[in-house]
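Revision sheet: structure tokens.
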Amino acid sequence: MKSKLSRFVCLLLAIVLSISLIGCSKKTSTQTSTQKESKVIKLGTLSVNEVFVTALKDALIAKGYKAEIIMFDANNMPAIATKDGDIDGFIHNHLPWIETFNKENNSKLIMVKPYLFHGRTGLYSSKHKSLAEIPNGASIAIPNDPTNLDKSLLMLQDLGLLTLKPKTENFYTELDIKENPKNIKLVGTEISVTARSINDADAVICPASRIKQAGIDPNSFLAEDPASVDFPTGLTVNEKSLNEQWVKDAMEILTSDAMRAKFDQIYGGANILYPKQ
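Predicted:
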């Protein structure tokens, strides 16, 4: 009798557990469905990455999300908007830039792994055909934000155009130039407009994607910065959003073979995908 009672109790518990699991499953499914139906995913970007981010938006919509693109004019605005909760995420700035932004703004922006690509950076000129032609007293336009200024100065040192003092701060500035034998004049510009200086300066140090956007062959550089591979770009969100379902779905889209093929078509070699993990 006790044996039969024990079996009955076990069977009853198993049934209750199964019903509970089904209920949880339905609840999770309902929550995911509700998120897709009610939340509008706002993705920020600048014009240089608009086509690629639009492709992500369209793919999210195909998965059942409501999504839209928020366009910005200034390099730092997508990060500010994400920090403030005005948008859900963006694809634009590279990782060292994001890390510096977090320190300066007490924010917790996270670039979701795996990182997607790195932008090529080069020294471009409409006046000179080789590095050797850069004259004494030449003007070179460079981005003026801390991380990209540092990157540009190191590139100029690698090219032999100037020498820097040993680094004592996080980033090099023009005050750290030790030797400038050609008396190069550096013109600091906001990175989104650096390419526009190509006809005014002797040369510019600029992301290839910006050069392409200006209608110039991104492969026409006088020299390329090999360190660009260490400056990854990808989907960036607030830390609290990292485990949201839309982020997981977005990363599934971004790492798919179809999206990677579309990426190469869009950027034409100006940006380079990292090997698929």
